[in-house]
């Protein structure tokens, strides 16, 4: 640190509050672990009111274990008058203010969750099929979403460019209109507080009729990323939702667009390039056949899920 003039030290795993304090005392600068870094990235990406609420809740729940002082700014939420009770220390006051703020955020998110459930029930009554794009962060989900629906959502070559679930209609011949949702990307060792805070958003994934598991086929860690996505899907209750594997970024690997089948001629995956549109017609045909034929049960425990067993 002295040689490089670094001002922050990053650790690629979770630190306990005691470890963090001891390290900061030793190196005399800010120490950030993996969880805090992910939360900071989420905070810088959040755009919608719901996204900001979810990130703030996750940050407060994580940082509450590291509370020493410094939460007195929350007094402004209530005017700062008569906040401290008899015999209450500053730290106890800060903890109480923090707890009140967490309770308020949870109440607001529960209200938003009920609104989402009402919308999903309305779609269910109208028998509208729903698809959700899932995958590791930066796998190209938003690019594929825009290519399929012409939604124009934000796309960037960065971690967690998408934090807010966006839904658009997609017309498939023989099926009609379906709802496609773009969701937040997953990452290994995703903080549990973050999963809990984003549960209202991730409910769209758990209640979808079909998951399009978008895979960065150019990544050297492709198989590991697929397993990590499977773990998170199982944790949020989406482990049994049917999946279709979509191998994206074939423009970087040189693979030909098309479908992959097993020895029985059953569909295993679709190879596409969301960037240049290669293979998207194959994907649309696959979705049409799947939605017209029926949806088998899936499993995300292995990261691959039960791929759709249909002949194209």
Describe the model:
The protein has 312 residues and is α/β, with parallel strands linked by helices. It is 41% helix and 15% strand. It is built from ten helices and nine strands. A seven-stranded mixed beta sheet has the order 4-5-3-6-7-9-8, sandwiched between helices. A two-stranded parallel sheet has the order 1-2. Strand 1, helix 1 and strand 2 (30-32) form a beta-alpha-beta unit. The longest helix has 36 residues, at 90-125. The protein is globular and about 65 Å long. The N and C termini lie far apart (58 Å). Mean pLDDT is 78; it is low at 69-83, 296-304 and 306-312.
Overall pLDDT metric:
78
Q: Strand fraction band?
A: 15-25%
What is the first-to-last residue Cα distance?
58 Å
| Biggest β-sheet description | 7 strands, mixed
Structural class: alpha/beta
Strand order of the largest sheet: 4-5-3-6-7-9-8
List the total number of helices: 10
Q: SSE string, helix = H, strand = E?
A: EHEHHHEHEEHHEHEHEEH
Poorly predicted runs? 69-83, 296-304, 306-312
Morphology? globular
E-strand count: 9
- The Rg value, from CA coordinates, equals 22 Å
Percent of residues in helices comes to 40-55%
Structure summarized in a few sentences:
The protein is of the alpha/beta class.
List the helices and strands and how they pair.
Elements: E1 8-10, H1 17-27, E2 30-32, H2 34-45, H3 49-63, H4 90-125, E3 130-135, H5 141-149, E4 166-172, E5 176-182, H6 192-197, H7 199-206, E6 210-216, H8 222-235, E7 243-248, H9 250-253, E8 258-261, E9 267-271, H10 280-293
Parallel strand pairs: 1-2, 3-5, 3-6, 6-7, 7-9
Antiparallel strand pairs: 4-5, 8-9
């Amino acid at each position: 640190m002295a040689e490089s003039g670094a001002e922050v030290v990053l650790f690629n795993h979770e630190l306990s509050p005691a470890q963090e304090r001891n390290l900061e005392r030793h190196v005399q600068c800010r120490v950030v672990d993996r969880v805090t870094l992910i939360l900071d990235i989420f905070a810088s990406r959040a755009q919608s009111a719901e996204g900001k609420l979810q990130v703030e809740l996750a940050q407060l729940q994580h940082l509450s274990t590291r509370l020493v002082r410094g939460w007195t700014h929350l007094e402004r939420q209530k005017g700062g008058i008569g906040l401290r009770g008899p015999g209450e220390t500053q730290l106890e006051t800060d903890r109480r203010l923090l707890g009140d703020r967490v309770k308020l955020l949870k109440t607001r998110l529960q209200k938003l969750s009920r609104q989402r459930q009402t919308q999903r029930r309305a779609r269910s009554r109208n028998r509208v099929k729903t698809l959700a794009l899932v995958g590791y962060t930066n796998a190209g989900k938003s690019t594929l979403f825009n290519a399929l629906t012409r939604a124009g959502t934000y796309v960037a070559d960065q971690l967690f460019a998408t934090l807010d679930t966006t839904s658009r209609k997609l017309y498939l011949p023989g099926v009609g209109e379906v709802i496609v949702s773009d969701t937040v990307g997953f990452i290994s060792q995703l903080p549990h507080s973050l999963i809990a805070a984003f549960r209202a958003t991730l409910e769209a994934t758990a209640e979808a009729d079909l998951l399009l598991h978008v895979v960065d086929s150019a990544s050297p860690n492709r198989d590991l990323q697929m397993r990590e996505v499977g773990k998170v899907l199982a944790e949020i209750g989406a482990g049994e939702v049917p999946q279709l594997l979509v191998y994206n970024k074939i423009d970087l690997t040189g693979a030909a667009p098309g479908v992959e089948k097993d020895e029985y001629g059953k569909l295993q995956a679709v190879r596409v390039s969301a960037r240049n549109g290669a293979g998207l017609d194959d994907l649309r045909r696959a979705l049409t056949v799947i939605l017209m034929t029926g949806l088998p049960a899936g499993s995300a425990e292995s990261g691959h899920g039960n791929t759709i067993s249909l002949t194209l």
